[in-house]
Amino acid sequence: MEETSLKITGANKSFFNKITNTISKMLIPTKVSINGMLITVKRNSMIKAFEHYTSEEEDKEIYEKRYDEAYEAYLESLDKYVMDSIYKKVKNNTATDFEKNALSKYYGVISLKENEYVEYKYRKQKFLIELDNENVKNTNKEKVIEKYNKFYIQKMDWLFKGILKNYSIKLADTSTRYDSTKEWIYLKIFSTLKEYIENILSLKIEQDKKLENRRLEEIEKEYEVYEAFEVGKLDQRDNIEKNMLLLGISRKLFTHSLPLTVAEQCYMKLLKDARCLVQDTKIASRREKAFNMLMSLMEDYDIKLLSTKVYWDSMQQREEFKKFWNEYNEICKLKEVDFIEYVKQKEILFIKDDMKKIAKEKYDYSKLIKYYKRKLVDYGAMREIQGFVSCGQYKKNKKNRQSSGGRSISA
Prior knowledge:
Elements: H1 2-55, H2 60-91, H3 97-110, H4 117-139, H5 142-171, H6 183-210, H7 217-227, H8 236-253, H9 260-280, H10 284-304, H11 315-332, H12 339-358, H13 366-378, E1 383-386, H14 398-402, E2 407-410
Antiparallel strand pairs: 1-2
Helix pairs in contact: 1-2, 2-3, 3-4, 4-5, 5-6, 6-7, 6-8, 7-8, 8-9, 8-10, 9-10, 11-12, 12-13
């Protein structure tokens, strides 16, 4: 009887589980449609409040409060949709690949809550709005899409600035020097800039064109150069150059969210990566390309950042840069007269300046220094003398000095 009873109980459990699962699957479409209707209502209310807030000049505080309340209710409806609909569809194995991916991203954002609350706060809003943006685009209703886009661009712009500002605060306790112990923050900054420029900047440029606004005209040219890097497989040199463009554009878009001191640290990280690439590359042609990229990065760093710097760590650094800047401007005068000589003199200036900088670094750049010296000899800016001087013992090899064998490079 005991065995029979157990079997019957087990069978009943299995039976009721099947019924429950079947009913759950039947109810999922209903919950999706109810949540969908709720989201549409909350979205329309929020957009209306947003339009009043951005257009009305009087009673700004009242409209702002209404917009904030409508926005909060809108986010709550989206959060409920994820938990009530997407989660249950994934659990019951009826979800699409898009929904499975969305839930995976959602849990990725939630995991930040415990240790990175500020980033979690911005990332969750960003995720929910991006999720609904896909739903809005799928409606194919032009007026709805156009109205929502105005809100979407402004809010995403604000969220990205908040995320970048949070990363900047994490780097604020260090000086303007690159801190290798915070490598993950630099990677997140570049990743966030990449996401913004690819997904939001293009929408802002398109919106400016519709409004016949030329505010982003200069940035648009840089964006077109950046877009060229999206074609084909990128190697390490391409990625460094791509991140260089990201930083250049960010200096115009995120002046406050990504202040100069943080941008300078990001440039330091790229310079270190570029120097290592030049000194570690064995194939001559690839090494030359890496060297040219390093020269472009140095110029970008000096022109777009150091030339705008107001506060320096020391007066000596400031005076050294002023001297460098005067020499650079003198060389630039050659550009129209003799372009080849202009390129040559500019490279000599950057090489000599970088040799001074890396001499103060802890990282071993001995191979790069040797490469730099060979470049300077080829340009006639450094002479090659006969004889060999060992670095450790400082003894001249007289036999080699008389023969054509040993050679050393001297400034």
